[in-house]
Design brief:
The complex is a heterodimer of chains A (77) and B (130). Chain A has 3 helices and no strands. Chain A is mostly helical and 77 residues long. Classes of the chains: A mainly alpha (77), B alpha/beta (130).
């Protein structure tokens, strides 16, 4: 089931969507990701775990660095 | 959506302990999810963590791993992995043996507090120190 919506977005978002093949699917995926993230942060809060955007970003950098090291090692063989 | 990181028993127990380590694990969980991926929890590690946890911690483990659209996915011990896991149990407990096999199968990093225990079973670069 789907519904047709008319929405207003800032110019930069509109320009981005102009270059997306299926804007509806793109927006749907973005909202679902956001909703999952909010649900997970709510669960973490229930578990007594406070996370910050900065902490999440730092964890992401650490993870990408570890993946990069592994990737370089595999290329080096 | 792919499995980017696998948590072993030590990670699960640190998460439910709710101490300072839990914040780092929460941030790792969130960053994996926000990248559109999930964190893998080997079934045998979940059983081992459950055995080592108290009642409040049991509830956290269940909620962490029971949402079909949540940040984690339980990784079953597949028939094809029984022999590799059994082989690894020569040097590792069975939960760690499944963690190694699951991480390898999914091309994921093995997140652990117990790197030295995996010596010889996992390449250094395939682990993520917590």
């Amino acid at each position: 089931m789907t519904r047709k919506l008319s929405i207003s977005v800032p110019d930069d978002v509109a320009a981005h969507l102009d270059n997306v093949e299926n804007a509806s699917a793109y927006i749907t995926e973005a909202i679902r990701l956001r909703r999952r993230s909010e649900r997970t942060r709510a669960m973490l809060a229930r578990h007594g775990i406070a996370v910050t955007d900065e902490g999440v970003a730092a964890a992401g950098e650490r993870l990408r660095a570890a993946e990069q090291r592994r990737s370089e090692r595999k290329v080096a063989g | 959506m792919s499995i980017r990181v696998v948590w072993d028993t030590s990670a699960l127990l640190a998460y439910v302990a709710g101490d300072t380590r839990a914040a780092g694990l929460g941030e790792l969980l969130a960053t994996v999810e926000e990248g559109g991926d999930v964190t893998g929890v080997p079934a045998v590690c979940l059983v081992a963590a459950y055995r080592g946890a108290d009642a409040d911690q049991h509830a956290k483990l269940v909620e962490l791993t029971s949402d079909d659209d949540g940040p984690t996915v339980i990784l079953p011990l597949l028939a094809a992995d029984v022999a590799p896991v059994a082989e690894l149990t020569r040097t590792l407990p069975i939960d760690q043996a499944q963690a190694v096999t699951a991480a390898s199968r999914h091309g994921a990093l093995l997140a652990t507090y117990e790197r030295p225990k995996y010596a010889g079973a996992v390449d250094d670069d395939d682990m993520l120190d917590l």
